[in-house]
Amino acid sequence: MGDRVAVIIGVGPGVGASVARRFGRAGYDVALVARSPGYLEELGTELQGQGVTTGWTPVDIADAPALRAAVERFGRHLGRIDVLHYNPSVFRQADPLQLDVDDLLEDVRVGVGGLLTAVQGARPAMLRGARVLATGSMAADEPWNEACSLGVQKAALRNLVRSLDATLAPDGIRAMSLTVRGTLAPDGPFAPERVAEALYAASQTTEDNWQPEVPYAG
């Protein structure tokens, strides 16, 4: 067994990258999963330059077999997964009279289904004390009708996280979603770095104080 390992699913230049940097600063080895090979190499090289042991693999999050295989490979290669962070969601501007059922299901596959796939792939490598983290949103409670699939994704994500937490808790593994009650912005209380800090802090919460949903209001 090596150092602690954080696997970040759906890494982009916002919250996902900030979470990778935050866990890297805390001494975790970091494994990155996203669709863009170019961005993964850019971020991975940056983290390696900062002394963070980093690996990455490009995967389409909607491809469940490929996602599960990638997470399983990280678990086998690194020997453990201490933190699994799930970040993806789909923004599709369409109200309920415009949204096609197939598009809704496609969005839910990415925004929710990928978490299920990733946890199932990670579970054999997760030891007591491991954590599952998900980036939630106030859209779960206050959906914008003109992008209604996002609210469906975030409400379902929160629900799934609660079921995961209840299922994993007997083995000392906990799951939580951070409900971001604001709009992400480059600076200020909803900057990606601040959200990443909140996710990191939540991951360090003791068993006695664990909550499957943590609100973040900046």
From TrEMBL:
InterPro entries: NAD(P)-bd_dom_sf, SDR_fam. It comes from the Bacteria. This is Short-chain dehydrogenase.
